[in-house]
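Researcher: Sequence recovery benchmark, item below. Answer with residues only.
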């Protein structure tokens, strides 16, 4: 089959590929535990499901405005007001099919061919491929486990060229879980804004931050410099709504119009009644989010305790999300020289599915999600530890 040259430059999702391998083993009757997926193991809260059901029963089933129903765009504004003290107006908000579509459309709207996008590595798997699809050039900026995988202004400055157009920030991070403090974020934003580098801040895990770490958003920077900043978020992770496909972005109203134009020619609006569920999520109580946060924090501690016992392994204690990203390169050998081979070995010998760090731009590491119950997590990590020690 003949497909475009553009397509040949991008990779299939490594997370999904690992999942497929795990499913194959499961189909052979093997008891595989998957720590490869990036979604909460909790159901969507009842009040959110009820709101969507009521909307469906009221026949709220037609096309809606492309950038989102007005009450959801206002609820997004209200969300930022509630947690960060900045309330973007309706025309600065777009609702899309997941944070993923907001990001994809942002790169499409902003990049001219060949323009460079600084992406601190390790990074979420989709950023470089989205940039490539949008015609841009991804430029990974490496970070170290000793620095909690956080990028410094110096490293960014070294990577910047006259062709640099965008910097992608992701805090808390997938795959590392690490978070920038407000002061660290401010220093980077100061640098970016003063050099006219547009910042795309992916804050999709902002509700999953564990004290003493504190959530930090770029929304204040958006308020001060709307032409230089876009903030991306969504309901997938914070409200256990991965399958609902609701993400949102805050950007300059002119950029929102551009995003809406792209969306209007591709997918149109997000599912009408799902948007009503999202309104209920953002305007209701956050007790459910707190419950999930408490569980994830306990599991993070449990996982850190086990990972810390693995010899030679370096792993920062992350402040958010639900992943650990240990540097396991001390366990590499002639037979297991990289993260992909190691993950295949772990899957075959320990029956645990993880994702190789190479997919996230750091071949020293492996990523696992701790969005599973405590007992499963303990059993899985103890089995992984045996392979690593072997
Ligand atoms: N950004 C990051 C860092 C993610 O980890 C994910 C999902 O895994 C997304 C964006 C996309 O989320 P959504 O399900 O809202 O498209």
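Model:
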């Amino acid at each position: 089959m003949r497909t475009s040259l553009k397509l040949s430059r991008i990779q299939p999702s490594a997370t999904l590929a690992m999942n497929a391998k795990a499913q194959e083993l499961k189909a052979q009757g093997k008891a595989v535990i998957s720590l490869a997926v990036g979604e909460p193991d909790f159901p969507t809260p009842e009040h959110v499901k009820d709101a969507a059901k009521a909307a469906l029963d009221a026949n709220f089933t037609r096309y809606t405005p492309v950038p989102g129903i007005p009450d959801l765009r206002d609820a997004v504004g209200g969300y930022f007001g509630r947690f960060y003290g900045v309330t973007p107006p309706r025309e600065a908000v777009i609702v899309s099919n997941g944070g993923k579509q907001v990001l994809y459309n942002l790169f499409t709207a902003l990049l001219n061919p060949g323009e460079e996008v600084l992406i601190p590595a390790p990074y979420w798997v989709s950023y470089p491929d989205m940039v490539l699809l949008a015609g841009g050039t991804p430029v990974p900026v490496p970070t170290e486990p000793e620095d909690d995988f956080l990028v410094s202004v110096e490293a960014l400055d070294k990577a910047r060229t006259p062709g640099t157009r965008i910097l992608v920030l992701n805090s808390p991070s997938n795959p590392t879980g690490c978070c920038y403090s407000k002061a660290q974020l401010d220093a980077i934003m100061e640098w970016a804004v003063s050099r006219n580098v547009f910042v795309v801040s992916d804050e999709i895990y902002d509700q999953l931050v564990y004290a003493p770490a504190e959530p930090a958003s770029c929304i204040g920077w958006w308020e001060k410099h709307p032409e230089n900043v876009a903030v991306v978020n969504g309901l997938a992770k914070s409200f256990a709504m991965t399958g609902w496909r609701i993400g949102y972005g805050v950007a300059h109203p002119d950029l929102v119009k551009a995003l809406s134009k792209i969306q209007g020619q591709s997918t149109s609006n997000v599912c009408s009644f799902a948007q009503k569920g999202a309104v209920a999520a953002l305007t209701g109580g956050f007790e459910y989010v707190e419950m999930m946060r408490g569980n994830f924090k306990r599991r993070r501690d449990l996982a850190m305790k086990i990972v810390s016992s693995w010899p030679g392994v370096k792993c920062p204690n992350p402040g958010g999300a639900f992943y650990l990203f240990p540097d396991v390169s001390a366990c590499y050998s002639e037979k297991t020289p990289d993260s992909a081979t190691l993950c295949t070995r772990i899957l075959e010998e320990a029956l645990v599915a993880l994702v190789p760090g190479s997919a996230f731009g750091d071949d020293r590491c492996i990523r696992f999600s701790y969005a599973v119950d405590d007992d499963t997590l303990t059993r899985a990590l103890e089995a992984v530890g045996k392979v690593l020690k072997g």
